[in-house]
Amino acid sequence: MKIPGLCVLPAFCIGIIIAALHPASGRFAVLCATGLFLIAFALWRYRLYIPSFVVVLTGWTALGFLALIVQQHTRPNNLASQLVETKAIDSSFPMRWRGILRENPETLPWGTRFDVDLQSVQVSGEQINVSGGLRATYFGEDVARAETFRAGDSVELLAQAHLPRNFKNSGAFDTRAELARQNIQLTASLRSLELVNQISGPPPTIRHRLARLRAILLNRVDTLFADVPQQAAVLHAMLLGDRNFIDNEVSDAFTKTSSYHVLVIAGLHVAALAAFVVWICRRLHMGRLASSATSLCALIAYLAIVQDRPPILRATLMAAAYLLGRAFYRRLDILQAASLGAFLILFFRADEISDPSFQFSFLAIGVIGGIALPWLDRTAEPLRNSLHQVGDVTRDRNFTPRLVQLRLDMRAVSVSLANMLPGWLHRRAPSITAAPVRAAVLIGETFVISAVIQIGLTPLLVDDFHRVAIVGLFANIPAVLLTGIIVPLGFAALGLSFLSEAIGRALARITGGAVFLLLKVITWFAGSRSVNFRVPGFPMWLLLIFCAALFLLAAGARRHLRTLQRLAAGMVAACVALIAIHPFTPQIPRSQLELTVLDVGQGDSLFLTTPDGHTMLIDGGGGTGPIKIHGVRTRFDVGEEVVSRYLWSRGLKQLDAVALTHAHEDHLEGLFAVLQNFRVAELWVGHDVASSNYQRLLQVARERGTKIMHLEAGNTFTWGAVHGTVLWPNTDSEVRSATNDDSLVLRVEYGTQSVLLAGDIEKPVERALVDQGLPIASAFLKVPHHGSSTSSTSPFLTQVHPVYAAISVGENNPFNHPTAATLERLRASGAQIFRTDHDGAITLTTDGNSEQVRTFAQTVPPFIARLYGSLLR
Asked: How far, in Å, CA of 374 to CA of 754, rounded?
């Protein structure tokens, strides 16, 4: 029965994937599934068991196909995102949105956030029914008004809502899909909290009252840990899933050590809470059935309080299966339970298969149940059992001679120890003697499980985070052990503080000490740079080989086949080494010059490759306004999440040059991540600037071994058949502050074709380039200063005479770039205009004689992107 159970889930998943890639009617899927099951039954009646089994699995594939189709067809037609995408609602101006607060307004380091379950929107005086979620954020310190709202309140917001911003480059993080999994279809910024008003509506539901309880618990954490806000922020995350106040340095440390799962409430936290409740029940001498029921009730209450967070739901399902099995004296097969839990989730929410957290959760459970536990059952479990009740001689016959000898040695040591202990501890001497050995066994088991998880999750970690953290093998041991202490103690402190403030604060001090130790340990491990490095993505064939090797290793471990285990372990090790080393050739077109203007919002970042394989990044994008408030990043790290991900998607680990046109944040900020994530040979700059961020960038370059080169007009470079010339600035002297007219202007030639990269220059420099008669004529122009009215003058465009003009500009930017006048001048010059806010990444390729321009919006997305898009439609 075990093998069929494990086969059903993969068959069901294959059906979901097929439905995502090749949609068909639900009627077709129903007919296929029914027919296949009838055929299977007929084959079984004729005792053709193997063909019957194959046909049954095919039937389950058809059911998986049907599950996704049903889910997609049951989505409401008035979903807010669909209405905006189809222009049924014009999102270009503010509208009045009505709905019910999903939770109490969440306090952020920079303001307040409202998550609203939408009901209607007012358009031209008419109320239109809508569904879905709206996330509205107020940026400001005056948040007193927000405290008057609570979950379940009916509210009306006046805001300009829009679809979540996705950067249209290969490899970019899919923010829209991530928010859609949280049922957030639209986002908005609030200029004032006066734009949010409470209106009459239905009374709050149980779900909303539980959300209010969660807010009360979060406030109680702040009260108990008022003197140590960093510990309070960590407990917000570990106990109740609120990561809003986690300092960026702390978050980065957990990420670098592959222990970020500690900050995301999931299986580890549920297991710790369940184990704590079971322990309490044992101390109260409750029976198995009663203790299992009590633990299950506690987990259900926890799930209700933290609301609809899929990792908690998955972990609770697994824990429930374990507790029910325990209540009836059944030993749970973890793989069977995981398969059942995954099947139940996918049956009702088929698109969960595209959720990275779903993939992480069940792959982790799979390698634990398939590899780690079989190994430990044959090694550590007998040793652990032999260390219980060491003083009981009658138990010796249950163990092997070697373990019996260990027990004899432990008893001998305990006799000597008893003579040194007070009389009331004499009877405890055997247990005290065995305690250090039992702790060592526990640490060893934790290391084995951690190592198996780290190795098994390597492809997902690299695909999602592009990070290989060897240090995670060791950092996760104290992280997991301390989490097992922090979670139950934290909830005990919270619960008892409502009964006795003194007891609550006493437990809070102990919990705070454990959190302090956790932060110290993780920070120490994160400081080891040599065992944490970034790598590009890997080819699909390597993933398939890795999965096959992992399956063979699990089969060998569960069936005690040593030869198969050795062979499979070697295959797994080889795959991990290839993923980590990444010896694969970057995706760079040979015999062609390629220039890509990346979509980085309101900023600049361009990537250039030459026919002989040289690579250069010009600018790294960035943002406006403060990067951090109270140690927490207020906005997207474009260099990490957009530019670096694009470069990794091209298979790059190093760059020959990075050029900074000028030291404005929308060009400079993203280069910090690039310098840290890639081996950069040279950093090209123009004017030195006295600003702190620019000086810090130079310092990072020096620390990373990057050569800094100052360029000015007249400098040239030659990479094979490609020749580049610096046209501006006319001096590399230091300036007090950066200006647009300090920009590096580069002209790159290949054969008869050329591109002009104009940075953010404005009218004075454009006039100077024209008056000096410099060779600026180019088929491709990176339009200066995002298409502002102060650039792209008619004389300049006449001299350049571009065939293609690419504008790097942010969607709905507050500067109204590009201006109508600039667009008109570009059209008058005869150029074909491309914009990153509309077209995404813009790529020019030329063989030196002819050129071609394509955009991200025009290209067919790769397999995984197409799959995810289909699942989340």
From this structure: 63
